[in-house]
Amino acid sequence: LSFNSASEELLKKTGGPTSIEPYRVILSPIYEQVCEAEHQVAAFLKSDKNFDGWVPIGKAEILEPLQLCYRSLIEIGARDLAEGRTLDLIRRLEAFGVSLLGLDIRQSSDVHEAVVAEIFAANGWNSYSDLSEENRQHLLISKIENADEIKLPKSWKFELGADVIATCKLLDDFPPDCFRTYVISMTEEPSDVLEVLFLFKAAGVRRRLAIAPLLETPEALAQSEKIISDLWKIKPYAKIASGYQQIMLGYSDSGKRSGRLCSAWMLHQVQSKLDQLAASLNVEFEYFHGRGGSIGRGGGPVHLALSALPRGSGNGRIRVTEQGESIHAKFGLPGIAERTMELYLSGVLGSALAKPPKEKKAWAGLMNQLGKESEIAFRQFIYHNPRFLDFFAQVTPIQELSLLKIGSRPAKRKKDFSFESLRAIPWIYSWTQNRGLLPSWLGLGEALEYGIAKGHLKDLKLMYKEWPFFASTLSIFEMVLAKVDLPVFEYYSDRLADPSSQELSRQMIASYHLACRNLSKITGHKELLAKSPVLRRSIDVRTPYVDVLNLMQAHFLKIYRENPDDPWVRRILAITISGISAGMRNTG
Predict the structure, then answer these.
(1) What tens digit of pLDDT does each residue of 213-247 get?
(2) What CATH class is the domain 8-96?
(3) Which fold has domain 103-328?
(4) Do the beta carbons of residue 396 and residue 433 sit within 8 Å?
(5) What is the pTM of this model?
């Protein structure tokens, strides 16, 4: 800061050649603004009042003076100073901005639709809910491009209307890097994206935020190419998006409705088709993978998950969700956090730089058949079996999960107990508790049995050897099958299930053995995880501790269901649920 020697570029900014301590002159105002921002945030955190604004300083306002100082130091020969703490600070600022992490805003498309419909009514326009998709697009674009102000309702009939508009207005109250993406869950049509732009306009938001449609239902994933293509055919949208589109891919819903194998193949195909679309549009697509922590929701080891992606997909960029229960395991210690980051970096770079494998057309055709057979077996056991819901409620603690005061959402979307209303996280969580892990592997054995019976064993072995997607997918299945503990599950079934439900238990066990047997034929492994002794050891070490909790849980579930008012039993069950999820290293 006390240097007087500086580049001509810097001196012009600080008073000319006679400027004294030019570095201090240019950096002191920035330092004062940063300190004031820190003071305001600290005061806000200590009070109960609403935050009434942010000191107007953002990443660019700090970065530009620092880069100017860096260039000046290089020019005058002070390279050691420039490439020491100065460069470190610039890199930290480029990576983390002023907010450490940019927040995403997420809201469901049906909420947006209800808010837009009420705004249309307040302005005396067409009934939005009655419009066709084509007319919705036309009207939304015309209102977005029109300079006239959009009138908001004086009092909202829809309970979330005011909250949605207030959330949009936040974008102008904070520096740009505080928010990163606006995610639209349950996206089905291009109008779902245009509605958000309309709401920005209605709220008077000047800033534009990247909008990511979340494609999560099997129907939306099947139509993903058409949805995004139609969106980019809308010229005003293409102009606003400026050659960049973020797309979030949901894993939970497709896995819950079609099974893990069918879901994995569906998502692989979707991303491959979207890559081709991006190339044809000359648009950069960035994928945001909404994976869960568990296998049934698209989770699994980082290196396996990344190696399953289409080669070259994402142009060296990727976004993924990390579930709360896995954050400590992956980022809790500096060394582990660095290792996790290395896995992500190496996986993304490997996918971007490696030559795409020579996938044979016959392989894709075979995978289509395997996916269909897997889905049929999955849905036959769960959706088309009238006894399944009773069996599910008996052998898992799904009804008792509410004893744990965790999570931001209820286990069910509706008050009735139906499979459609059940959320993906408790669906997976409950099967993790009894060590059956049914959603994570059901359908695999039947699909592989079909392929082998049709004479494709040789092809399947070659696919496992030469196709990264197939190899990593089977490796993930092998891991989850190794985590299943049939004796523990059978104890739950024997103790808790009605005699009429025991047949389902036997069918499930037979399906598990079929999956293990057929997987072994393809991988050549005589036992599960034969080629992964460290992982096998990790599972074996944790198992005895979890076994005790499982025995306690099954015992007290029966007692609780006979006498649900006993507070001690409720407390014991809550402890076993937490302990088992910790031992299994995931929840849902």
Answers:
(1) 999 888 999 999 999 999 999 999 999 999 999 99
(2) mainly alpha
(3) TIM Barrel (3.20.20)
(4) yes
(5) 0.85
